[in-house]
Amino acid sequence: MLHNALIYLCAAIIAVPLAKRLGLGSVLGYLIAGVIIGPYALTLVGDQTDVMHVAEFGVVMMLFLIGLELQPARLWALRRPILGLGGLQVTLTAALLTVITVVVSDLSWKSALAIGLALALSSTAIVLQSMTERGLLKTPAGSNSFSVLLFQDVAIIPILALLPLLSATSGSPEAMTPDANFIARLSAPLRVGVSVATIALVILAGRFLAAPVFRWLAQTDSREIFTAFALFIVVAITVLMQEVGLSPALGAFVAGVVLADCEYRHEIEVDIEPFKGLLLGLFFITVGASVNFDVLLDKPLLIALAVIGLIALKAAVLMLLALIFKMGVKRGLLFSLALAQGGEFAFVIVSAAGGMNVFTPEVGQTVTVIVALSMLISPLLLAAYEWFFSRAGQNKPEPAADTDIAPTDHVIIAGYGRFGQIVGRLLSAQGYRLTILDHSPGQVELVRRFGNKVYYGDASRSDLLRAAGGDEAAVLIVAVDEPDRAMRIVTTAQKHFPRLKILVRAIDRRHAYQLIAADVAGLRRETFHSALELGVDALKVLGQTEQAAERAGQLFEEHDEKSLRKLAKLWGDDKSYGRAIRKNLDELRRVLQDDAGTTQAEDIDIPGSDKR
User: Fold this and answer.
1) Does the pLDDT value for residue 372 go beyond 50?
2) Considering the entire predicted model, what is its pTM?
3) Number of structural domains the chain divides into
4) Which of 226, 331, 498, 589, by CA, is between 20 and 30 Å from 304?
5) Is 437 in the same domain as 584?
């Protein structure tokens, strides 16, 4: 095993930089490296079973880290695309694949259904890694892709529970192998019960045990023990899920979501990230090395047509869903190409189905090769998409963060776009010393042309904030235009520089609620006041006196600022929040009517949009 792992690492060191220089991404580099060193090329490695088990921890860690970035309220907000997009994708794709398999082969409908369910799933590892590298995961297409992948990870539970019912020997003692996992020996209803109980156990342990332990370990100031416990959680969840026959990736994701509200989640991310990257790369190499070229050479035409057909069918279904959900052609194409391949969970389903005699070993080997080849092709599809749409600056290397930052004892500004520049000019004109950080190389270069001193770097890094004067400065102004990045900066500053007063640009109402919960020193919604002033101008044009219009704007602002604090406590509870919004609008209408002393306000449509 160690011999194989050493060869894998050497292959990655050579192949991955070469693939990235060619603009193909590290995922394809790992996959190609695996093919080259595999038993059907240079034969540098033989049996990959042991290494594959270790490498799968990379997928588990990736889902754990993604879960850490998704607080339960945000995950709840994604429930519609998860159930709608994900449910329709798996159902439609599996149904079409089942019908096609029955028509073109002599397999029974039970075998065809098992194959259809296996091929309907996409590769969580490849999609998320590829889209993260290209900066696409935060886009609408990336968010929709993630929703589908999350549903697929959940769907693996009922799929595995369904397999024994598709077996010709289902329910017979002979069908049970001595090494069958615990859940495989239970009836279908008991499997569901054990699955629910196991996930509930992970949730309870994460909420009531893991967070206090992290807090206690942080007090010991031992970074190694902190990292060891973070790794222990991932490994323990993986072992637990495997013992009961569930998806380890799903369990890790659930644990990550539970710990998303933990104050130490950023430290956990930083500690696990290197292990995730290393093991995930090992997983990709192992997938490449596991492609059975004997099966491919025995049925080249059949497998080639099957791979092309699989990708085309899945892309067609996904594009149809993209049109139904009104994503647009360009976003829909990215969404379709990203998820058109087979996935790593197909290997799990094929292995389990083979062990239960759902289909023959030869059929299982053929399906495995089809899935592996589709995974090899997947990064090429994204590369072709980027080439076709010529995404500007996609392959430019990101510059290193500035290290010679001049610290300030007055104000640090994070983000120097149109919002930050206005704040900066006002403070600078009043004689305050500023240190300005921006994470966009293009913006830094543009601003420097006009003689402004701006440093490149991500202000969510504690070392850069310290270099900018975090220990001495009085105020940190967060003016970046990405809510998630702004929250990371706020969290870092509050943890490492507690005396620093933080003022934040709120992008929208949801972001404002998050900032209120974080108890920052102050916030301003970027479009609220300009929109309010435009509304006042509209009242004047509609015939109201200047005094009446200004008074209405003032009352609206006062009422909205008060309601913002009240509604922040209900954010995430759709039913209570919806009732409070309607009540708030009624109160606002009464306030304006009472102040005007007339019923004319009843004919005025008071804006009640949730996004300002």
Assistant:
1) yes
2) 0.56
3) 3
4) 331
5) no
